[in-house]
Design a protein that fits this description.
The complex is a heterodimer of chains A (424) and B (190). Among the domains of chain A are: 34 residues, no CATH class; 254 residues, Cytochrome Bc1 Complex, Chain C. Chain A is built from 16 helices and two strands. Chain B is α+β, with helices and mostly antiparallel strands. Chain B has a single domain, classed as Rieske Iron-sulfur Protein (3-layer Sandwich). Chain B has a three-stranded antiparallel beta sheet, with no helix packed on it. A three-stranded antiparallel beta sheet of chain B has the order 2-3-4, with no helix packed on it. Chain B has a three-stranded antiparallel beta sheet with strand order 5-6-7, with no helix packed on it. The longest helix of chain B has 30 residues. Chain B is elongated and about 85 Å long. Classes of the chains: A mainly alpha (424), B alpha+beta (190). The complex binds protoporphyrin IX containing FE and FE2/S2 (inorganic) cluster. The site of FE2/S2 (inorganic) cluster has 13 residues of chain B, from loops.
């Protein structure tokens, strides 16, 4: 599994005995202690650890919430209110899970844009990137299923609208969409039957994500981490060991992010949600303005930007699907956007488009809002399908440093570091 | 050591046949795990209801639940019927009747959206054909959209007084379920 040679020397008798039977100690030593980490990583590289932290936190809080939650149409809403009001520490556990989901997405968006900026998807990290996209999609599914569980008005109508996306398949093969949607619902409409199965799947998906994260980290440890220069580790002086250097930096990142997270948990637990979700689900009344959770707003804006039902749905799925092809759409020979003077501007234009789509997704779908949503949707796709392939061909990148050490210490420092072979 | 040419052939066949059996058997045994999610017998058996519509006066509308879906029953006024009749079917975004009781090719005329002799009653599933919200228009205070029928607030679909889509992202007219008049004031849906 490791790209570097194992330096593990078990000392104790038990350690030696285990090492020839199940070398877990060796795995931990090689992958989490002695693993070579680029010496120039910035705080954007702590988001991987932040994400792992949130995955574990969601599973832990989820399992205890499930001890009090009732997945039936009659009891779900009340059981969630009971968690808030009566269950010991329920007031804390539920916001940890609900705000945790929001923060999980904030972190994953930063993590994804980090990858896009520094070209972390480029060879040999294509598989690493693709697994990342799959994790992202699984997270979206998990969060969507989780949001249905409190069975408030927003839960109910979000489930109705999102599952109905599949009914657009009726426009491809008549009857197919209805069949799929009724299969998802287990009825002629969204009912408690739907809620029950969504709970089962909400419990399952995080463990699927754990499996995918395992593959993601495996792939990462085969090819090694990228870094802000995009230059590979070449000599010993380019790298530091994972422990204690990366682990302590990650700890700082996690604590920093926790301040933001816990501030919401303690002071604004409902701020990121929607007030209508405190009205019990009513299948006869649609709320006047349905909005998804903030982290889905850009996709919602894309859906509504397109006047045809089928093509709106195709656009949503393509906006995710296009990410899978990014490693091959980018033709640049340079990884890091730091050395790409023109592409840099387009990168920030993409960030702006996504933020703008998020804003537009929260607004009613009429007038100027729709026009702007179309403009930014067009740029979103143009970025990946036109800008990314073309820029690599026409742009002249700036000089890339010869090594990570040179970037950190300058040319003289490189000579010194190479001579002594010392670590940073 | 001569090479036996028959033996490998037979083995190839057996491997292929066994592989096929495993693949087909595997696929078939998946079916129960998929089909369990389909609508169960209990939900299917609740498939029809009877409603007394005598109390619904002209201009009024009621909503009843059928198969867990809201069904709109509107006692239309003369003006509403005339308005629906005045539209040329060719100008409609969806010119199909969407009436379960008629052939799939029937045109979306007002007559095809109602029952002969009972044109004052419009009965349809109250679920927007876009993404499934419940359109507004059942109570007097509701916004009824640009065509005085129903208006779906979710993404802005406007339906006319025959429940036909006129403007907005919804692709189809509101669906007319299978129903019949048992007496003049009693209907059976489903
Ligand atoms: C990928 C990890 C996960 C994500 C992104 C996630 C997301 C969510 C979201 C967005 C909600 C709605 C919160 C609200 O508005 O109240 C929710 C609720 C819930 N989740 Fe999760 N979840 C995850 C993992 C889990 C796990 C492993 C379980 C274990 C069973 C679980 C159990 C629950 C329960 C019981 C609820 C309903 C109670 C409530 O609404 O607070 N979740 N989840
Ligand atoms: S669900 Fe009615 S307009 Fe979208």
């Amino acid at each position: 599994m490791a790209a570097h040679e194992s330096t593990c020397v078990p000392k104790s008798r038990f350690g030696k005995w285990m090492d020839v039977r199940l070398p877990i100690g060796r795995l931990v030593h090689d992958q989490l202690v002695d693993f070579p980490t680029p010496r120039n990583l910035n705080y954007l590289w702590t988001f991987g650890s932040i994400l792992s932290f949130f995955l574990m936190l969601q599973i832990l809080t989820g399992i205890v919430l499930a001890m009090h939650y009732q997945p039936s149409a009659a009891d779900a809403f009340d059981s969630v209110v009971r968690i808030d009001r009566d269950v010991n520490f329920g007031w804390l556990l539920r916001p940890l899970h609900a705000v945790g989901a929001s923060m999980f997405f904030l972190a994953v968006y930063i993590h994804i844009f980090r990858g896009l900026y520094y070209g972390s998807y480029k060879a040999p990290r294509e598989i690493l990137w693709i697994i990342g996209v799959l994790i992202f999609v699984a997270m979206m599914a998990a969060a969507f299923l989780g949001y249905s569980l409190p069975w408030g008005q927003m839960s109910f109508w979000a489930v109705t609208v999102i599952t109905n996306l599949f009914s657009s398949l009726d426009d491809v093969i008549p009857g197919l969409g209805t069949t799929v949607v009724q299969w998802l619902w287990g009825g002629y409409s969204v009912t408690g039957v739907t809620l029950n199965r969504f709970f089962s799947l909400h419990y399952l998906l995080p463990f699927v994500i754990v499996g995918l994260v395992g593959l993601h980290i495996w792939a990462l440890h085969v090819v090694g981490q990228n870094n802000p220069t995009g230059v590979d580790i070449k000599t010993k002086s380019d790298a530091v060991t994972f422990y204690p250097y990366a682990t302590s930096k990650d700890a700082v990142g996690i604590f920093g992010f926790m301040i933001l997270f816990l501030w919401f948990v303690f002071f604004l637990p409902d701020y990121l949600g929607h007030a209508d979700n405190y009205i019990p689900a009513d299948p006869l009344v649609t709320p006047p303005h349905i909005v998804p959770e903030w982290y889905f707003l850009p996709y919602y804006a894309i859906l509504r930007a397109i006047p045809s039902k089928l093509f709106g749905v195709i656009a949503i799925f393509s906006s995710l699907g296009v990410l899978l092809f990014v490693p091959w759409l980018d033709t640049s020979l340079v990884r890091s956007t730091k050395y790409r003077p023109f592409y840099k501007w387009f990168f920030w234009l993409l960030v702006l488009s996504c933020l703008a789509l998020g804003y537009l997704g929260s607004k009613p779908a009429d007038g100027a809002y729709v026009i702007w949503a179309r403009v930014f949707t067009a740029y979103y796709f143009a970025h990946f399908l036109i800008v990314l392939p073309l820029m690599g061909l026409i742009e002249r990148p700036k000089r890339v440093p010869g090594s990570i050490t040179e970037d950190v210490l300058g040319p003289e420092g490189t000579a010194g570091a190479a001579a002594t072979g010392k670590k940073g | 050591m001569a090479i036996d040419v028959v033996e490998p052939d037979r083995r190839d066949f057996l491997t292929l046949a066994a592989g096929t059996f495993v693949a087909v058997g595997g696929a078939i045994s998946l079916w129960p795990f998929i089909d369990q999610m389909n609508i169960d017998a209990g939900a299917q058996s609740l498939a029809s209801i009877e409603i007394d519509i005598a109390p619904v006066v002209v201009g009024q509308a009621i909503t009843v639940m059928w198969r867990n879906k809201p069904v709109f029953i509107r006692h239309r006024t003369k003006e509403e019927i005339e308005k629906a009749l005045a539209v040329d079917v060719k100008d409609l975004p969806d010119d199909i009747a969407r009436n379960e009781g008629l052939p799939a090719s029937a045109l979306a005329t007002d007559g095809n959206r109602t029952k002969p002799g009972h044109e004052n009653w419009l009965i349809m599933v109250g679920i927007c054909t876009h993404l499934g919200c419940i359109p507004k228009g059942q109570t007097l205070s509701d916004k009824r959209g640009d065509f005085d029928g129903w208006f779906c607030p979710c993404h802005g679909s406007h339906y006319d007084t025959a429940g036909r889509i006129r403007k907005g992202p919804a692709p189809r007219n509101l669906e007319v379920p299978i129903y019949e008049f048992i007496t003049k004031t009693k209907i059976k849906i489903g």
